[in-house]
Amino acid sequence: MAKNDNAIASVLAFEKKLVSSDGYLYGTNWGKRTEENPLKLIEKSVRGTISNRLKDAIQKDPLKLNAEVEKANLQKVDACALGENQDTLKLHFTLKVLGGIEKPSACNNALFNKSYAEAAKSYVDDEKFTELARRYALNIANARALWRNRVGAEKVEVVVKAGSQKWTFDSLQFSLRHFDDTHADINALAEKIAEALRGELRYLLLEIDVYALVGGAQEVYPSEELVLDKGKGDKSKILYSVNGVAAMHSQKIGNALRSIDTWYPDFDSSGTGPIAIEPYGAVTNLGKAYRTPKDKVDFYTLFDRFALGEKLESKEQEHYVMAVLVRGGVFGQSSKE
């Protein structure tokens, strides 16, 4: 992009508009959910087996192989499970939805700021955040925030409260693969989210309870901590807790709620399904970026054009750009480029 007065600001940041709390885990029973107890982490000492891929020299020598597998693989790990008289996991978190997408939290270029504000206002006036809000609402209703805890659950129910309003969703009725489902309560929740994103509400606070019937005394899965200095700890797996209550990171819940990108080029052929809104479409567990600058479908390529008033090829591209801004982040262009 040529260096001119309309160039992207070198200092440019947006505050996130979907602000999730940590998620707290409780044990209860499907038929009597008023009785619940916070779940605690359990420390286990286990003797595992050697199961990693071995060097060719060891694999091909039976004596060396036997000597290797005889070694004790002793580990201390955190675990979490329902009580012996509990069959249901409850995940509780809150979600605050904010407006003000037209105003960056930091911008050092007045001309760019004006150009972007006009483009953003045009999007809000035309689209009214209807599509993005509907997708966020569906990701609340389908209990995507449970992550691994959703797999194999017999029943899953989500209860959402917004002030005096309340919605209850049978989560297994809603797909994790697409956003084609229609439902009156989904539309009502989506409209509340859209009103907040448009700035018609000062903010929207949702209280969300997710119930999953996983089976008596079954193991459940809080977030796992990233241990940066592994030399100082004696555990090979450390789970997340807050004041003794097993929990899920707010970042993990946020990632689930913004997994709405079905507009990336390989969506139909990849089999990956919706991915989280990211500037390069990064999916770290697959080691792949689905939106590359080479293909000109990454956020920065599209945003530079959108913010300076250029019309994008499709509404889907506009939805994606605005969803990244809802996610928030620092997007300035270096003056050294």
Highlighted features:
single chain; 337 residues; alpha+beta; 9-stranded antiparallel sheet; 3-stranded antiparallel sheet; 27% helix; globular
Blueprint (SSEs and pairs):
Elements: E1 12-14, E2 18-20, E3 23-29, E4 32-38, E5 42-48, H1 56-59, H2 62-69, E6 73-79, E7 88-97, E8 106-107, H3 110-127, H4 130-141, E9 155-162, E10 165-170, H5 184-198, E11 204-213, E12 241-242, E13 245-248, H6 250-257, H7 267-270, E14 282-283, E15 288-289, H8 299-307, H9 315-327, E16 329-330
Order of helices and strands: EEEEEHHEEEHHEEHEEEHHEEHHE
Mean pLDDT comes to: 93
Radius of gyration: 23 Å
Distance N to C terminus: 10 Å
Please give the largest β-sheet.
9 strands, antiparallel
Computed structural class = alpha+beta
Q: Which descriptor suits the 3D outline?
A: globular
Contiguous uncertain segments of 5+ residues? none
- What's the tally of helices? 9
Helicity, as a percent range: 25-40%
In brief:
This protein is α+β, with helices and mostly antiparallel strands. The chain has a domain at 14-48 and 74-113 and 127-261.
Can you describe this structure?
Helix content is about 25%, strand content about 25%. The protein has 9 helices and 16 strands. It has helices spanning about 55-60, 60-70, 110-125, 130-140, 185-200, 250-255, 265-270, 300-305, 315-325, and strands spanning about 10-15, 20, 25-30, 30-40, 40-50, 75-80, 90-95, 105, 155-160, 165-170, 205-215, 240, 245-250, 280-285, 290, 330. The strands form 4 sheets. Strands 2, 3, 4, 7, 9, 10, 11, 12 and 13 form a 9-stranded antiparallel sheet that branches. It has a domain at about 15-50 and about 75-115 and about 125-260. It has about 325 residues and is α+β, with helices and mostly antiparallel strands. It is globular, with a radius of gyration of 23 Å.
